[in-house]
Amino acid sequence: MTRLNSRQPSSRTPGDVFDLPHFKSMIQRTLRYVSAGYPVHYTGPAGIGKTTLALHTAEKRGRPVTVITGSRDLSREDLIGAYSGYSRKKLHDNFVRTVHKIEENVSENWVEGHLYKAVKEGHTLVYDEFTRSSPYTNNLFLSILEEKVMPLYGAKRNESHIRVHPEFRMLLTSNPSEYAGVYETQDALFDRLITIPLERMDVETETAVVMKRTGMKKEGAVKIVSLIKRVNEQLGGSGSPLSIRTSIMMADIAYQHAIPIEGSHPAFQHLCLDFMMFPLQLQAGEQTNNVEALILNECRNIKEGS
Ligand SMILES: Nc1ncnc2c1ncn2[C@@H]1O[C@H](COP(=O)(O)OP(=O)(O)OP(=O)(O)O)[C@@H](O)[C@H]1O
C-alpha cells in the first residue's frame, strides 16, 4: 500500500527563503525605488519567480495590495469601473383614499474598478503580465505615473479624473518572450519603469523554495533541483524549458507518495519522464529521439544518499 505523507510547507526550511542572498538585495532595492515613487518591473521567463517576488515585496510595504493580471480582454472599464444595472425606488402614497400617487426613482449603480479603488486608497498595485493587455488599456497608466491623475474615460462620472493617492505604488511583471510586436506600442510605459531582469535561482535558493513548498528534506530536494539543472544544461538549448515549477511538482509528488529520489527506482524514473519529456521534446524539435535516453541517463545517475 502506498504511504502518503501530508504536506507541511515551511516546516523544514530554516528561516525565510526571502532572506537568502538571491532575494534579499532585490527586495531591498525594489523597496528603495518604490518608496521614492518609481514603479518597478520584473521581467524574466516563465516560472522564474516574478509574481511571487512582486507579491512578497508589495506586502512588505504594509499597504493594501491589489493584483491585476494583464490580458487581451482587460478593458479600461474593468480597471476604472462602470455603471451596471439599475436601482429602482417606488413610493406608493395612498394617504388620501381617493388619491393614489406613485413616485418612482431609477438610478444606475456605480461599480468601482480594481484600479480605481487602488489609486483612490493608495494601495500597492501588482500588475502581473502587463504586456498581455492592449496598449489602449495600458495608456491609462501613463497619466497615473506621470501626472498623478487617473482619467475616468467614458465612465459617465461627473468628475473627469481622480487624483492618485500619495501612497499608491506599482510593481509590474512581464515575460520577454511575449514582447513580440508589443514593445514599440508600449515604449512610453516601459520608459517610466525601472526594469529588473530576474536571474534563475541558484541551486541553494531553489532547494530552499522546494523544501518550503513541499515539506521535502534537503537531501531529496537538492537532488531534484540539481537533476533539473543538469537536464536543462544538456537539452535546454539557449533556454531552460524546465522551471522551478517542475522541481516543485516532482518533489511534491515524490514526498506525498514516499517515492525514493533514487535513479534505479522505477517510480522515480516514471516521474522524471512524465515531467520532463514533453517540454523537452517541444524544445528539441526534430531531435526528439535522444530526449528519453538523455533523461533516463541523468535520472539513473542519482544514487541513494548521493
Ligand atoms: N520565493 C518563493 N517562495 C515560494 N515559492 C516560490 C518562490 N518563488 C517562486 N515560487 C514558486 O515557483 C513557481 C513559479 O513562481 P512564479 O509564478 O512567481 O513565477 P513567474 O516568473 O511569475 O511565472 P509565470 O511567468 O509563468 O507566471 C510558483 O509555483 C511559485 O509559487
Characterise the protein shown here.
The radius of gyration is 26 Å and the shape is elongated. It contains twelve helices and nine strands. The model is unreliable at 8-14 (pLDDT under 50). A hairpin with a 7-residue loop joins strand 3 (81-93) and strand 4. The protein has three domains: 17-73 and 117-197, P-loop containing nucleotide triphosphate hydrolases (Rossmann fold), CATH 3.40.50; 80-112, no CATH class; 203-300, no CATH class. The chain is 43% helix and 18% strand. The chain has helices at residues 21-35, 50-60, 76-80, 114-121, 135-138, 140-146, 183-190, 203-214, 218-235, 244-256, 266-284, 289-300; strands at 40-43, 65-69, 81-93, 101-112, 124-128, 149-151, 161-163, 169-174, 194-197. With 306 residues, the protein is α/β, with parallel strands linked by helices. The strands form three sheets. A five-stranded parallel sheet has the order 2-5-8-1-9, with helices on both faces. A two-stranded antiparallel sheet has the order 3-4. It comes from Halobacillus kuroshimensis. Residues 43-193 form the ATPase dynein-related AAA domain.
